[in-house]
User: Fold these one by one.
Assistant:
Number 1:
Amino acid sequence: MEKSAAITKTKLAKIKPIQVVIILIIVAAVFLPSFYFYNQYKQSQLLLQNPNLASSSQERDLVAKVGKLIELPGNESPQIYSVKDRTQLPNIPLFANAQNGDQVLIYPKAQKAILYRPSENKIIEVSPVTINNPTSTALPTATLTPTTFLVPSPTVTSAQTP
């Protein structure tokens, strides 16, 4: 028994610090990706259980991207719409250069509409708007549809600038 204990002590004494570092790196290389993917899985399950979290996250991301390009009204949240069919849009100057896939951010209190092109990360047009009746729909729903995280589309008319 003394002989086996002596052998174990000598084997442990022969382990160099570099070997300990290599073993720790291998253990970290195995456990860190596992931990990362477990957290991603938990987060995706949380978003599946509560879709409003995903939509508010998408809204915040879009507003943050646009906010880096232009000063946004800070006292309200925008109503966000996606351009689905450019050919069916009303004859409003805001939509003159719109393309399918563009996003429209409408700030009713500030009476401002912003046409944003995510593919180019570019503001295409900014226009003043007047919200006549927030419960009716004047914009064609087949061409300019609310994203999954917003309210029904308002009646929007472009204010003419002199």
Number 2:
Amino acid sequence: MEVYRFEFISTTGCPSACHVMVSPVHSLVVATYWGEGGSVTNECESIAREVVARHGLKASRLLFIEHYPEGLWQNSKETFKLIQFEHHETGFANPEWIELHTDVAREMLPFLM
């Protein structure tokens, strides 16, 4: 498992960052947004492309989870969403979000605690 701050330029040209946890064995990426620039929701395709390339993950097996911590915005609850992509030679496209129950996500991802 590798954990680090992932810095990038958003599609609008804004310096941005998220916290990334990568498990190469499982082709798992958890991207946590802390309010710095472009959101994981808006930048998920480029984050996925760059993290997959950096870690040599199998794109066809990618499990990409978007995480927003509790309290990021006023009265906001913690959320986890699995993002499924179409994968092409040049990257990822057409994301679809599947909401994960917070308790289940925390049980599956105990390293977030």
